[in-house]
Every structure is written in C-alpha cells, then in structure tokens.
C-alpha cells in the first residue's frame, strides 16, 4: 500500500504538487497523507461516499479517516506486524499539479474504490493487469489539456475497467488521449462505454460516447461524437472537408441522373421490365439486404461493416457535421436532415402523382422507383433518429415522434403500392423481406441496449437465427412462386439468398473467435476476413456479370414458359 502510493508520488512529480502534506512520512492511514482516505480492514467497502461497511450493506456509522491513531497496529517490532490495520479506499487528488505517467503500482491498492486525479496533466497509460483495482466504482481522470496539446492518458481502455463499468459512477475520462475510437480494436470498448454512459448521463460521464469523444483526442487529431451518439467521428482537415462535400454532391447528382435514366428507360421500353430491369433490381435488393444484415451486431470485421453500411447511402455520415457544429441544439436539428433528404423526394413525387393528370402515370412510376431505392435508407434514418441520445428529454421525445410518423408514412406508401403495382406485386414481397430484417435489427439493438454485456453473445445468436429464418422463409417463397421471367434470375436470387445466410454465419463465427475484433492476430481470423470479403465481393460481381450478360446476349436468353394462371411468372419492377 505504501509502496503503491510512493510510486505514484515519484512518477507524477510529488515534490511539485500543490499539496503534498505528510506524503512519504510514516504510514498513509495512520499519519494522514493528503487526499488518502482509509477504512478499517474489517469494514473495507464504502457505503455512499464516506461510510465504511463490511459488504456495502447496512449502516455502521464508521466513517473514512484521513489519518487516525486507530489505524495503528500497536506493534513496533519492525516487522509486518507493524502495518496499519486500515486500508486505502479513496485517493482524491484533483487539480493538485500531478504531472507525469500513472504507474502500474496503483494496482497494489486492492480496496481502492474512489480515484479522482482530475484537473492534472497525466500521461502514460492505465495499468493492463486483469486484476487491477477490482473494487473501483468511482473514476475521474479528466485532464486540463486541449485536443491539440501533448499528454493525456494514452493506450487502450483496459479490460479491467470495461469489466467494472456496471458498477462505475461517475466515469469521467475527458481530455485524454486513448487509442483511436474508430478502429476495430476499439469497437468493443466504445460499445460498452456507450451502453454505460447513455444510462449515467452527462453529469456522471464525460469524454466517451454518447456524451463526447474528447477522451480520444491526440495531438493534432480531434474526435467528436456522432450525431446519433453511437460512436466517434474523426474530424478532418479543412481541405478534406471540401473534398468530402464535393464527393457527396457528386454522388447525389449521379443518383438523380440514374433514377431519371432508369425511369425513362422503363417507361419507353416496358418489355425490359421482365428482363434487364428485373436483374438490376435483384442486385439492388441484395445490396439493401447486405446493409441491413451488416447492422446486426454479430461481430463483423470493421472494414466489412463500413463497406456494407456505405451501400445504404449514409450521406450525412460522410459529412463531419459534429466537427463543424458543436452547439447541442444545432446538432439536434441536423439529426433530422437525413430524414428530410429521404422524405422530400418521396413527398414531392407523391404530390405530383396525386395532383398532376397529364403525367400521372410517369409520376406514379417515379414514386415507386424512389421508394424502392430509398426504402432501407429511410428505415435506417428513422431508426437512428429514434435511438439517438439527447440529454434534453423534450428533444428526445420529438425525435421519437418524428421517427414514428416516418414509419407510418412507409406503411401508407406500402398500402398505396398494393394496388398501384398491379402484376409487379413481387416487389411488395421484397419490401416485406427488407422490413422484417430491419425489425430484427431494430429489436436486436433494443435488447443489447438494455441487457448486460455478458448476455450479448446469447442475444446475438438468437437474432442471427431470426434473420436466417426470415431469409430462409423468403428463399422458399421465391422458389415456390418463381416470380421472374428468366431462369438465370431465379438462379441468381437463390445464390444471393445463400450468400446472405452464409455471411451471417461467418460473421457470428468471426465475432466469437476474435471477441468482436478485439483479438487482432491469428491465421484463422485473417482467413475469415478474407473469406467473408471474397464471398460478398463475389456475390456483387456475380450479379453484375449476370446483368451484363443479359444485356449482351439478350436474344439468346430463354425465358421461362409458364402460364400466368399457374401462379408462377410475374414481372418485377
């Protein structure tokens, strides 16, 4: 105990502390070292802030002391019998000019429950020993540095601290320099910190999502919490921001041109709806399915998860708005922007289809195309809006009401398309598949949100099984109904269903073997990453080749010859 505190004193420049009264003089619990609070060995567990108990239960009336003769053993033999009969339960040295690295010797304080070293200039990293500080419940390491200064506690958030999160209040880590929160190695830590701090709130938690990300700022590199609060975003330079804005504008323009060209092609050549267009929409549906199963918290490799998320056009995710705007009200308003981007074209097309007579058919078809492309984008935006973190309860309620209204709008359009699509009702089946998968993803997020971390692995397997059941059911329905006009389209759809199911299984295996990406070495891990990436890449490439082959060899394709009355062939738009 004495050695641990002496090492802390030496490594942080104790001679220059603002107050080092009695440090290194005698015994900390007997002589009263400044900031060191003790309890009797028989009552080592704090109840509240100052009461010493045997197990944290009933009141004892015994309070912590800062030096007491009662802690003296009464022995002066010069042996271990002379050690104090009290244990250190609190070390409180806020704004005391501690400068330097924390030392691993702190782990030699097994009864320490409160550690407050805020307002200092600490460096180094937290101890990594698995059994370090097993009783810690209060931690404040908030530092005085700004994001572009040197210093701060660095390295990974240690496993022992993550294991103590359920008992930690407060947990303040602001203005430090922990490892990059956007890497695969940090994914588990960020998820567990988020789960704890969204419960504690800003008064009890700082520096980590969903409150902030200043715990990870290193010299020259700043991070801000995402608009939805689920993670951190790296703040780019000014030049990078202009490049990102130009790229997003280009993507939006390209999408508008593609939608217009697609709509014009199908309206001008309706016979293509059963052939080339149907194949393209199979690929679009597959990409949308991949984005949804990529949201399932199964332990995906981070790079693959980011690629799958990009298929769903998270345009607002490409723009580092949290880095540009720091006001919480503005951030709250901007969280609605992505929802507005989805809603405006749909509402506009719906109004045109409702009011315009001359171009009613064209407007109706454009509405169906936009809805097909934006269906999963809108679902993701609404779920993000519903689950985002906000300290202001009024803003949070408004966000959830808006998300609920958006879901009702989706249902309204689905009901409307029930009669508008005519023979192309198979698209309703595709939308139903995407909707059910999204419900699985949404309920999985909710369950993991409110359940302890130890139960996450069981929950992920349950929801993985549900997602596989949904895909398997629709695969069977597709094989039974035979909704497409050409054999290769049925083969392609069956192949993509198999890929989706296999990808879920591989993601579960990868997450189990690597502890959600926390373990970063091993040939098995590399093989799984390459296999999963190759599988998904082959599925997209294979679908593209089928589409190109259909365009090149369309005269040679052999459509299914089946009477419509048999319930087999339906066109696909």
From TrEMBL:
The keyword Membrane applies. Keywords: Membrane, Transmembrane, Transmembrane helix. It comes from the Eukaryota. InterPro entries: At_inactive_RLKs, Leu-rich_rpt, LRR_dom_sf. Coiled coil: none annotated. It holds the Pfam family LRR_8. The keyword Zinc does not apply. The chain crosses the membrane at residues 241-263, 275-293, 333-353, 365-385, 397-415, 436-453, 459-479, 491-513, 533-553. This is Disease resistance protein cf-2.1-currant tomato prf. It comes from Chrysochromulina tobinii.
């Amino acid at each position: 105990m004495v050695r641990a505190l002496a090492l802390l004193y030496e490594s942080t420049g104790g001679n220059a502390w603002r107050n080092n009264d009695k440090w290194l003089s005698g015994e900390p619990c007997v002589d009263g070292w400044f900031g060191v609070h003790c309890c009797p060995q028989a009552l080592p567990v704090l109840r509240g802030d100052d009461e010493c108990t045997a197990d944290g239960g009933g009141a004892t009336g015994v309070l912590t002391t800062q030096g007491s003769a009662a802690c003296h053993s009464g022995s002066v033999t010069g042996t271990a019998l002379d050690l104090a009969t009290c244990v250190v339960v609190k070390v409180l040295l806020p704004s005391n000019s501690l400068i330097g690295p924390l030392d691993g010797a702190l782990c030699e304080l097994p009864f320490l429950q409160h550690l407050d070293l805020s307002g200092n200039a600490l460096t180094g990293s937290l101890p990594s020993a698995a059994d370090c500080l097993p009783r810690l419940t209060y931690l404040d390491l908030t530092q005085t540095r700004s994001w572009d200064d040197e210093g701060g506690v660095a390295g990974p958030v240690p496993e022992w601290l993550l294991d103590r999160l359920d008992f930690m209040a407060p947990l303040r880590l602001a203005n430090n320099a922990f490892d990059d929160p956007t890497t695969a190695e940090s994914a588990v830590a960020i998820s567990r910190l988020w789960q704890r701090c969204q419960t504690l709130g800003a008064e009890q938690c700082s520096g980590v999502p969903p409150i902030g990300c200043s715990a990870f700022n290193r010299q020259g590199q700043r991070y801000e919490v995402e608009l939805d609060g689920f993670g951190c975003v790296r703040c780019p330079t000014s030049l990078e921001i202009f490049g990102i804005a130009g790229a997003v504008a280009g993507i939006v323009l390209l999408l508008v041109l593609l939608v217009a060209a697609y709509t014009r092609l199908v309206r001008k050549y309706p016979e293509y709806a059963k052939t080339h267009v149907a194949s393209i929409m199979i690929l679009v549906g597959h990409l949308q399915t991949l984005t949804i199963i990529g949201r399932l918290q199964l332990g995906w490799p981070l790079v693959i998860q980011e690629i799958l998320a990009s298929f769903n056009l998270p345009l607002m995710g490409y723009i580092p708005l949290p880095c540009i705007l720091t006001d919480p009200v503005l951030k709250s308003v901007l969280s609605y922007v992505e929802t507005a981007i989805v809603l405006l074209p749909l509402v506009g097309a719906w109004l045109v289809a409702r009011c315009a007579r001359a171009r009613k058919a064209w407007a109706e078809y454009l509405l169906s195309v936009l809805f097909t492309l934006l269906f999963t984008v809108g679902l993701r935006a609404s779920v993000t809006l519903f689950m985002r973190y906000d300290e202001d309860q009024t803003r949070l309620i408004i966000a959830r009401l808006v998300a609920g209204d958006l879901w009702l709008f989706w249902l309204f359009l689905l009901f409307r398309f029930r009669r508008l699509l005519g023979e192309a009702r198979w698209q309703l089946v595709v939308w139903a598949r995407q909707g059910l998968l999204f419900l699985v993803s949404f309920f999985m997020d909710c369950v993991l949100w409110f359940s302890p971390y130890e139960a996450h692995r069981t929950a992920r397997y349950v929801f993985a099984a549900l997602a596989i059941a949904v895909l398997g059911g629709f695969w069977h329905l597709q094989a039974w109904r035979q909704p497409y006009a050409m054999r290769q389209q049925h083969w392609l759809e069956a192949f993509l269903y198999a890929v989706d199911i296999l990808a879920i299984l591989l993601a579960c295996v990868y997450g189990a073997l690597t502890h959600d990406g926390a373990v970063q070495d091993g040939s098995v891990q590399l093989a799984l990453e390459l296999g999963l990436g190759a599988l998904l890449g082959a599925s997209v490439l294979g679908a593209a080749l089928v589409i190109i082959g259909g365009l090149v060899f369309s005269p040679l394709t052999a459509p299914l010859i089946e009477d419509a009355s048999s319930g087999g062939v339906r066109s696909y738009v």
